[in-house]
Amino acid sequence: xxxxxxxxxxxxxxxxxxxxxxxxxxxxxxxxxxxxxxxxxxxxxxxxxxxxxxxxxxxxxxxxxxxxxxxxxxxxxxxxxxxxxxxxxxxxxxxxxxxxxxxxxxx
Length: 107
Hints:
107 residues, mainly alpha, Multidrug-efflux Transporter Regulator, Chain: A, Domain 2, two-stranded antiparallel sheet
């Protein structure tokens, strides 16, 4: 899958993002984002807060969810499963990079 971004975003520029801004930056509706939270694909900083806020890194995950929904018409529960798999693959790739950096034999 090829994901294109039309704007640059400095993740450390702003530590938290309100739900409305996450919807604006991701292309998903607020109701779609709420469903992704319900299915565990996204996590607000404080789920019990009156107004949800998210770590800025959630913008990347929400954009991936948007592309998956747009390209493959996945329902929210399918998006949650795929997002979990994407997160796992990213973690494994990071672990592999770390191992390769520490061991010249793995390069």
